[in-house]
Amino acid sequence: MPVVTIQITREGSGPGRDAATKEEKAALIKGASQLLLDVLNKPVNSTFVVIEEVDTDNWGWEGMSITEYRKLQRDGKK
Amino acid sequence: MPVVTIQITREGSGPGRDAATKEEKAALIKGASQLLLDVLNKPVNSTFVVIEEVDTDNWGWEGMSITEYRKLQRDGKK
Amino acid sequence: MPVVTIQITREGSGPGRDAATKEEKAALIKGASQLLLDVLNKPVNSTFVVIEEVDTDNWGWEGMSITEYRKLQRDGKK
Amino acid sequence: MPVVTIQITREGSGPGRDAATKEEKAALIKGASQLLLDVLNKPVNSTFVVIEEVDTDNWGWEGMSITEYRKLQRDGKK
Amino acid sequence: MPVVTIQITREGSGPGRDAATKEEKAALIKGASQLLLDVLNKPVNSTFVVIEEVDTDNWGWEGMSITEYRKLQRDGKK
Amino acid sequence: MPVVTIQITREGSGPGRDAATKEEKAALIKGASQLLLDVLNKPVNSTFVVIEEVDTDNWGWEGMSITEYRKLQRDGKK
């Protein structure tokens, strides 16, 4: 009966994308369910996976938003 | 001081609806607050209820997204 | 596929008890599952309920811990 | 390695605004990171902050939604 | 910057154990971090994993606690 | 009506302590409530703070548990 919650920023994982794709989400769901089966013998039909996408303005690291953090990275300051 | 978090998929509970209605959400809030009062004597003014609606692409069960799961159900495969 | 998370302080609901009883927890589980069935037609076998009990030192309200808050209540200051 | 999750209703903190601003979110992130540094010596580069904004229809208090609650306040009934 | 939260019941995955072992937890952490790297290119040093173990009295499914559910299973009624 | 959840590892912030103290928790509660008041004008009597302490075996970073991570730090490998 596990619940796996995956919180990620709403960003693309490559050029031209601005969020995780359906395929990536499906891979996260499949992989997380498989992990619980492999490690703890939890049948996949008893595992829930919830993906929460968080705006980069709403996620903080190092005391600043990820929006700001990414800007510093693009400017070569991170 | 309870907090009740209700996570549901963003789907309608009947034909022609694609999400929980305001009335359904109000009923969840009222019912959850009443439950804490009935069972644990928590006054309703000390209970918070938070409803989180999750896209069907972002919710997984049986190793697949609910989007996919609903499709199998419509095709009679579930 | 709902998940209902109920966060409560670890306190008894009456004299001589210092935490929710098994019976009270069972009533919360039953009631929350029933609520989702009644309001959104969610079958009870698709609803998870998770009860999180939090020490009164770890729960804050009005800028103080519930441990402190209860003391003020006992002293008639709340 | 702390994670601070701040759940707020999606409302403006003053006239003419209907949600927390970027500046307010940045202040929450900065303040929460600083708090963990001040109190527990957690370096700011090990603290994540996640801000979750919840629609007023989806947040309940006193057995009703905040949408309803705000209406009663505007009508002078709260 | 992902956070992966894995909620499981506090039960052993085999005879003679009553909770997930250190090794199983380490495998969950490693696997979840790897999953985020594989699917979304998230470096492992930016992923947090939090495992929450929940007493079987505090987890509900099908309207009953997992304590009760396991008893029905042992009695061949599930 | 904010809820601030602070997840930390169960570790002392200095020598001779193995968990956050009552005073540190009280400071987190007070500081988080004050932050919401300062930034978003939320009255302290409408803010809940929940502190979740997580065993170092149950928290992962860089693909390993914090138990392991601390060991590497003590050995000068981090």
Automatic annotation (TrEMBL), chains A, B, C, D, E, F:
**Which family does the UniProt entry place this protein in?**
Belongs to the 4-oxalocrotonate tautomerase family.
Please report the organism this UniProt entry assigns to the protein.
Dyella dinghuensis
Tell me if Zinc is a UniProt keyword of this record: no
One Pfam family linked to the record: Tautomerase
Family matches, as Gene3D superfamilies? Macrophage Migration Inhibitory Factor
Q: Which GO terms describe its molecular function?
A: isomerase activity
Question: Which keywords accompany this UniProt record?
Answer: Isomerase
Name used for this protein in its record: 4-oxalocrotonate tautomerase family protein
Keyword tRNA-binding on entry: no
4-oxalocrotonate tautomerase-like domain residues are: 2-68
**Which InterPro entries is this protein grouped with?**
4-OT-like_dom, Tautomerase/MIF_sf
